[in-house]
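Consider a protein example.
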Amino acid sequence: MRVEAWASYRICQLCNKECRSPLSTFRLLNKYLPIPPTDISPANVLCIPCRLIAERCKTDIPPPDMVDRQHPGKFVETVRVFCIEIECADTSCGSRIQIIAPTTRHWNETTLLEDSRSWSVAPSVVCAGEHSPKKPATVLSIKQLRIIWAFFNAAHYSVLGWLACC
């Protein structure tokens, strides 16, 4: 039986709610966040508690604290990560705006689609053509990012690794 460590972190600067997730879920989310100044544009992240889409990068989210899953306190237990694409407001542009959404276990593609009308968007969230997203948000696609545990055997060494796939 595999026991996984849990990470505690804060993803939203507006509501500042504590999120806790398995370390593998935090790593999956962190994989999609750019590292400035090498990466040019930050990732757009949806905060489920306050419904705000804002730009984030690795430096915006401090390294997580390792906690026991049963540690007391109020927190959002994020165990799923979705990749959502919404439409740009300029109809001639055709660009899509990608959003990463860490969610609780109760969220799925249907609930995210229904909730999309309540999302607010920070002014810095724009498409590749520098246009704001359509309001209310028009969702074009939603895919859950999954963690796939894979075993590799190279030259008699077994390595346990994980891959993200949509």
